[in-house]
Amino acid sequence: SAKEVWAVGKDKAAWHFDGTVWTAQDVSPTDGPSLDGAELSSVAVAGGEVWLGATLGNGTGAVLHGKDKAWTVLPTDQGVAALWASADGKTVALAGGQSTNKPFLALVEGGVVKSQDAKLAGGYLTSIGGLSANQIWAAGTGGSLRAFDGKQWSYETIQHLPGTPIDKQFKATETLWGVAVTAGDERAVLAVDKIYRWGQQPQ
User: Fold this and answer.
1) Cα 53 to Cα 44: distance, rounded to the nearest angstrom
2) Is 167 helix (H, G, I), strand (E, B) or coil?
3) pLDDT tens-place string over residues 105-138
4) pLDDT by residue (tens digit) across 16-60?
5) How many CB atoms lie within 10 A of CB 189?
6) Cα torsion at 88, 70, 14, 34 (round to 10°)?
7) Torsions phi, psi for 166 (to 5 deg)
8) Which is nearest to 145 in space by CA: 175, 114, 108?
9) What is the DSSP letter of 120?
10) Which of 82, 37, 42, 83 is nearest to 56 (CA)?
11) How far apart are the first and last CA of the chain?
């Protein structure tokens, strides 16, 4: 909402906007590692709770979970470049791996980070988005696009819109930097200089 806006960055920097003013936030965990110097890369707000994705200096990562101004840490094997949370906050999906150049996908279930099979031999994932616990998409290097149906991840194919110019068509060698999905099931991924759309298109 307009009163629940966050911005994050290097050295564990986190700012919150309440609709009127920005204020710096102390996201140090109540217990566990201090995460000093961690680079925060992504934010999701759902169910009255806040989730932050982080990459640590040693190539590993973490998810910071904030509730009632208290923060806890969930360690991850690799850095978290992006995360997404369902509206009720019960499903949180993570994507990353840039710090090690190894694809990283995970779900947070019951307060535990559970790694997923990204079905990728190399590269990394840059973004993730979804509509529900069984409709999630992740994108990354090498034109990687994966879809989750609530049980497993699979390859996602982009169907070109009729009349799409050749230079605007999806290329499997491109790095995809963002993925977005609307309630009307219109989906889009962002490449360096263009946006690819697939799924239900607006009339």
Assistant:
1) 9
2) helix
3) 999 988 889 999 888 877 899 999 998 999 999 9
4) 999 999 999 999 887 766 687 889 999 999 988 999 999 988 888
5) 26
6) -130
7) -55, -40
8) 175
9) -
10) 37
11) 27
